[in-house]
Amino acid sequence: MSEQDQTSIHPKSKSEPELGGVSELSGQPLPGASTHSGSALLSEGAGASSYPSTSPTPGISRTPSFSNSSYQDESSDAEDGSFFPPVERLTMFDFIENLALAQRLEKLQTSFQAQTEKMKRQQAKLRKNGMNTRDRVVEEWRRRLPTPDEQLDKYKKRMRQSVDRLNKRWNDATAVTAREKASFIAGVMNIVVSGYLVGARPEFFPIWYTAQLLYFMPIRYYTYHKKGYHYFLADLCYFVNLLAFLSIWVFPKSKRLFISTYCLAYGNNAIAIAMWRNSLVFHSMDKVVSLFIHIMPCVTLHCLVHLLPPDYQKQRYPAIYTIRTSAPDSPEHYSLPQMMLWATIPYAVWQLTYHFMITVRRREKIAAGRPTSFTWLRKSYAKTAIGKLVLSLPNFLQEPAFMLIQYSYACITMIPCPIWFWYRWASGSFLTVVFMWSVYNGATYYIDVFGKRFQKELEQLKKDVAKWQNSPGLDGGMGPLTPSEGPGERKNSEKEGEIDKIPPLEGSTGASVGGEGKARERK
């Protein structure tokens, strides 16, 4: 049987691989395949092989369809053979390449160790920098921390300043200035001379009042303008003093001017002593002048109305004499409504002038903080019923409401003025009560204000002593520790042991203390 017949009798299945032959596609190397070199060698040997094959050798498929069918058709075998060559075509280079896996793992492990060492070095560097920063901060803190000697010098300086400040306020030789001495003398002599003139020579009292007015007003203007209080000089009390000056020296025959002056002086000015809390404080020029402008016009008018002889009154002050000697049914015999009416005219002139000249034209400066009587009363009486009523109104209505309340207050204080004008003892009693009110305010200032101020100085001195005793390094005191010190560790222990007690304050103006603790007399 010929070879051709055997082939026809036993045909090979397409699915049966031929071991001796090499397919056309599998013999060609693929770029990038791992068996490139082996495939190339096999392709060279295929031409010299003595066993040619007429049928191609199918390849093993790596497609997902391989799981569904064991074998594919011829075309798919040719395509998949280029990706995954048969097992018999694997060469030694493929096995060598697999042996390099251990070297790759070693290389990755080496790289990981290098990164770990790098991170450890960075952590050590950061830790070192942190320690250096901490050391620098501790060293700077120690450098700035004062030593016990410096703390002792600082305490001595502070203690000396406290003692000197206390002696400056209390000792007459250093605390009382020349101006306050002059104010004290002027206040005491004012009462003595005023009392003498009222009882002995009332005709000279207007001269005494005018001399003081001309002396005090320039001082008041200078001091108030320096402090920024000069808007207070436009208040009604100063206007009343101007009316009194005009009634005494310029228009002594004007009955209406005198009635207006009398009602405003005994009404607004006298009651303002209680409302504005004027006090008789002799050493304060400001308080002496404030009391003067409120009470002295009343005392002057009391002398002119009740204490002058009729002949002298008729000759020197004819308006007063005419009103006093007029018949009850005479038009010159002013009743209460007439007094209030004529007093309202100068009051309206003052109020309108004050409103346009101060409230309107100086509105920006007042809003910037310049005080006036309206702002002072609004702040002082903010918690009272009237103050709450005014503050509850809109801003544009607060000033008119204040003006209306002030006029109502002036009218109410004028109601008893006919009694003060027609009855001497009633007028004297009223002035006595008003003066005693000012004395009471002065006593309150000396005891409550001045005394408490001295008490605060003593308490501050005690606090300084207690603070020094608890200061670091002084007689067992516990002060702040450095960051590197523990609770039982202290620096400069040798110097701290030398400080056992408070040393004497050399150069202080206070009394020195002897070795046995007894105070020696200051020379």
Explain this structure to me?
The chain has 523 residues and is mainly α. The protein is built from 22 helices and no strands. It has helices at residues 3-9, 36-48, 74-81, 92-99, 101-144, 148-170, 172-175, 178-199, 205-227, 236-250, 255-275, 285-307, 310-316, 318-324, 336-360, 363-367, 373-380, 385-391, 395-414, 417-422, 424-469, 493-497. It is found in: Membrane. Residues 487-503 have a biased composition (Basic and acidic residues).
Main sheet attributes: strand count, strand direction, barrel closure: none
Ranges with pLDDT <50 over ≥5 residues? 1-76, 473-523
What sequence of helices (H) and strands (E) makes up the elements? HHHHHHHHHHHHHHHHHHHHHH
Radius of gyration: 57 Å
Oligomer category: single chain
Mean of pLDDT: 75
Overall structural class, as computed from helix and strand content, comes to: mainly alpha
Give the % helix.
Answer: 55-70%
Report the portion of residues in β strands: under 5%
Q: Choose one word for the global shape.
A: elongated
- Compute the separation of the termini in Å: 160 Å
Number of strands: 0
Number of helices: 22
Short description:
This protein is mainly α and 523 residues long. It has 22 helices and no strands.
